TrEMBL record:
Residues 12-72 form the HTH tetR-type domain. The keyword Transcription applies. Gene3D superfamilies: Homeodomain-like (1.10.10.60), Tetracycline Repressor, domain 2 (1.10.357.10). This is HTH tetR-type domain-containing protein. Keywords: DNA-binding, Transcription, Transcription regulation. It comes from Acinetobacter populi. It comes from the Bacteria. Residues 35-54 bind DNA.
Length: 207
């Protein structure tokens, strides 16, 4: 079933309300504990309206994950042109990624998915495809444009993107996931980012 009438502002507003309600319930009650009835009630719409936009709860979950990623790391951060200051673009992209990575929403989602690995691996795979895999693909597409524009010495855009993400996702991420340490401050993220970018640009220097 395809979403119907999504071009109308009223429908777009309802769709957004459904996604926000779904996200909040998934984070507080878990996937199994969040019913379509509860999502409809929290969104202020009818259950039929929810099904008019989303075929089932699985599709709604996937869309909610995509929404979180797009809100935290919108397309503007991937924009690059021949006259772009590549270091400035990498800094803005990297900082936005770190803010998404360490956001309360992302932390709670990762903890939720970790708890479901042995009981609902299909949902975990869906989360991966809707969130982390999409981000990785966006990064790869970004670095492919950087390669084409000859802004950095890049031979393989996939390897470049994976290294960029690996450098930013350091050991503190695991510690934060398991609440061993507090979430880093903006200042701490800035320090981490500058250190990692120095390493990255040594491996992929400017042309």
């Amino acid at each position: 079933m395809q979403p119907r009438g999504l071009g109308r502002p009223k429908d777009l507003k309802k769709r957004q309300a459904i996604l926000e309600a779904a996200k909040n319930l998934f984070l507080t009650l878990g996937y199994e504990g969040s019913s379509m009835d509860a999502i409809a009630q929290n969104a202020g719409v009818s259950k039929l309206t929810v099904y008019n936009h989303f075929h089932d709860k699985t599709q709604l979950f996937s869309a909610a994950i995509e929404m979180v990623c797009e809100q935290r790391l919108p397309k503007k951060y991937y924009e690059i042109g021949p006259d772009s200051d590549i270091e400035d673009v990498l800094h803005r992209l990297g900082f936005a990624f770190l803010n998404m990575l360490y956001s309360k929403e992302a932390m709670e989602l990762m903890r939720l998915m970790s708890s479901l690995v042995t009981t609902n691996v299909e949902l975990v795979h869906l989360f991966y495809q809707s969130g982390p895999a999409r981000t990785q693909q966006n990064m790869q597409n970004f670095f492919e444009q950087v390669r084409i524009l000859q802004l950095l010495e890049i031979e393989n855009s996939q390897q470049c993107a994976e290294l960029f993400l690996t450098l930013l996702t350091d050991c503190n991420y695991d510690r934060a996931i398991w609440q061993i340490i507090d979430l880093p401050t903006a200042e701490q993220l800035e320090i981490t980012l500058r250190q990692r970018l120095q390493i990255f640009l040594k491996l992929y220097p400017k042309i």
